[in-house]
UniProtKB/TrEMBL annotation:
Record's protein name: Lipopolysaccharide-assembly
Pfam family, one: LptE
Entry keyword annotation includes Signal: yes
GO cellular component: outer membrane
Keywords, in A-Z order: Signal
Hydrolase found in the keyword field: no
Extent of the signal sequence: 1-22
GO biological process: Gram-negative-bacterium-type cell outer membrane assembly
Lineage of producing organism: Bacteria, Pseudomonadati, Verrucomicrobiota, Verrucomicrobiia, Verrucomicrobiales
InterPro entries attached to this UniProt entry: LPS_assembly_LptE (IPR007485)
């Protein structure tokens, strides 16, 4: 009996300092979203020429918001706020050239530009909005499938953009 009390007190003394380390799951919100508890993500519109990037972005944003834990996912008709937006542009640029031909890019960078808006479902009031740019790159070489590597680079850029939007909506 005496030993279990000492074990309990030792465990309590070890846990108390750790409880003030500042780690948490969710709960930190910007002032405009303080009273919001649930969200829904509308399919982002795609004004670029790359198919399916809006689907990748919408899925990545839903996953990032859920993973953060600050808000819970809800059906559109029950959510406190709705996130929507546009894939504005996908801009390629040459990062490196082939050593045999200076006109041939061996690494191509992509900049994904996304505009988002957060609206309160009940009133339609805009709570937050902004533009995010995410960068990724892929290689243009003879022995790889260029279409697959470009698609993977865009998917990665979509995840980076979703992470940035999530950070803006969950940090004060």
């Amino acid at each position: 009996m005496k030993r279990s009390i000492y074990t309990f007190l030792t465990a309590l003394l070890l846990c108390v300092p750790l409880s003030s380390c500042g780690y948490h799951l969710g709960g930190v919100k910007p002032a405009a979203l303080r009273e919001m508890h649930s969200f829904s993500v509308d399919m982002f519109r795609n004004t670029s020429t790359q198919p399916q990037v809006s689907m990748q972005l919408t899925s990545a944003l839903t996953n990032a918001m859920q993973g953060d834990g600050t808000y819970r996912l809800a059906p559109r008709n029950k959510a406190d706020f709705i996130i929507s937006g546009d894939v504005v542009a996908i801009t390629p640029r040459s990062l490196t050239t082939d050593w045999r031909d200076s006109y041939l890019s061996s690494e191509i960078g992509l900049t994904l530009t996304v505009r988002y808006t957060v609206t309160e479902r009940m009133t339609g009031k805009t709570l937050a909005s902004g533009t995010v740019e995410a960068e990724s790159s892929y290689y243009n070489q003879d022995d790889i499938n260029i279409q697959n590597t470009r698609t993977n680079a865009l998917s990665y850029a979509a995840r980076l953009a979703a992470d940035e939007i999530t950070a803006r909506l969950t940090s004060p």
